[in-house]
Amino acid sequence: MGGNRVKYAAIAALGGYVPPRRVSNDEICRSIDSTDEWIRTRTGIANRHVVDPGVATSDLAVEAGRRALAAWGSDEVDLVVVSTATPDYISPPTAPLVAHRLGLPQVAAFDVSAACSGFVFGLATVAAYVRAGLARRVLFVSAETTSLFTDPRDRDTAPIFGDGAGAVVVVATDDPEAAGVLGDFDLGSDGGWGELVTIPGYGSRDRANGFLGSTSPYIAMRGRDLFGQAVTRLEKSARTVVGAAGLSLDEVDLVVVHQANGRIIDALADELELDPKKFFINIGEKGNTLSASIPLALCDAIKEGVLSPGLRVLITAFGGGTAWGSTVVTWPEKAVS
Ligand code: UT7
Q1: Structural domain containing residue 212
Q2: From the CB of residue 177, how many other CB atoms can be counted at a distance below 10 Å?
Q3: Residue nearest atom 17 of ligand 1, based on CA coordinates
Q4: What is the pTM of this model?
């Protein structure tokens, strides 16, 4: 770490990974009172990928990280950051485990925890490290095993979540006009709504209250309240960051928003008065993968030919905390999945 002070941080490569097991709504409905039709209409989800027994978050992170490094063509990074709400352990953090498995010994490594907004907060963090000269080449991975934190008998959550990981390489550049340069971020939170989505068991609150082992280790969610907040916060954050970048919403080519619910994305398009076709949606096959959802959506958008170099992408997320964040980036040439 350390070295010369540099001014700009740019996305240089991207990689994504979902575990091979694909689970249909019908399979989910074997343990809850629901239907394929309800899940499709209320969430936009048809299938999601989930890990096989024995596979944890760092395993997915390693796969996505390896793909991003391969796309970049090097493994010479000086910092590894992992965003996850579903870590392998409360401690140690997941990033050093991932760095070790990727054959990056002694590299600086730490985790970022910002639930569904973890990709945006993590991107802002690594960009700030690069701009401050604390790192020059960063591997940043968002990885989640939501299926291990979801009660299959809870119909509020069982249909929604999926597993996966997405990774980017962020590098220093002297050129402020270079494609991929990370500029403005809008970041915010309101912990007054922290109870809307939680994993209550096994943290210090649980221990402080003497409940260790008896509180649920699964995601608990007040979906309807979150839904309303999501649309309001995403709209404001998107407008703020686009304005800060000196752009109008019309100048955005593609919106990649956290894939929480297809109807949230439709409502956001409505509020922003933007063509729904500008919103990339892959929730149908991936479900809600928390902080992995945006990099996985970027990967799928490239594979589907929707995202190509030179396009101006608005990235925006909202979720647990509650916390939200947005940024705008011109997609670079080299970033391939
Ligand atoms: O990424 C983390 C952040 N998470 C989010 O942003 C999630 C945001 N929220 C959502 O995506 C939606 O609120 C859900 C998909 C979770 C729920 O959809 P909703 O349209 O808000 O449903 P609801 O909770 O208002 O319930 C509507 C009805 C209720 O029945 P009644 O009272 O109208 O008779 C529920 O009991 O749907 C019923 N219901 C279900 N029915 C079949 C709730 N869950 C299910 C289910 N299957 N799984």
Answers
A1: 185-330
A2: 8
A3: 223
A4: 0.96
Q: Closest ligand 1 atom to the C-alpha of 263?
A: 11
* Tokens found for residue 325: 């964040």
Q: Is 288 among the residues known to form the active site?
A: yes
State whether the beta carbon of 114 lies less than 6 angstroms from ligand 1: no
Cα of first residue to Cα of last residue in the chain, in angstroms, is 27
Asked whether residue 262 is domain-assigned, the answer is: yes
In this structure, are 125 and 224 located in the same domain? no
Spacing, Cα 223 to ligand 1 middle (Å): 6
Could you confirm whether 47 is annotated as catalytic? no
Pair 17, 163 in one domain: yes
Q: Is there an atom of ligand 1 within 6 Å of 193 CB?
A: no
Do 205 and 166 have their domain in common?
Answer: no
Say if residue 127 is in the same domain as residue 202: no
Residue 3 lies in a domain: no
Tallying the residues shown for the chain, one arrives at 337
Of 32, 42, 266, 316, the one to substitute when testing ligand 1's pocket (max ligand atoms within 8 A of C-beta) is 42
Question: Which CATH number does the domain housing residue 225 bear?
Answer: 3.40.47.10
116 catalytic? Reply is yes
pLDDT in tens, the chain (337 residues): 545 556 899 999 999 999 999 999 999 999 999 999 999 999 999 999 999 999 999 999 999 999 999 999 999 999 999 999 999 999 999 999 999 999 998 999 999 999 999 999 999 999 999 999 999 999 999 999 999 999 999 999 999 999 999 999 999 999 988 889 999 999 999 999 999 999 999 999 999 999 888 899 999 999 999 999 999 999 999 999 999 999 999 999 999 999 999 999 999 999 999 999 999 999 999 999 999 999 999 999 999 999 999 999 999 999 999 999 999 999 998 666 5
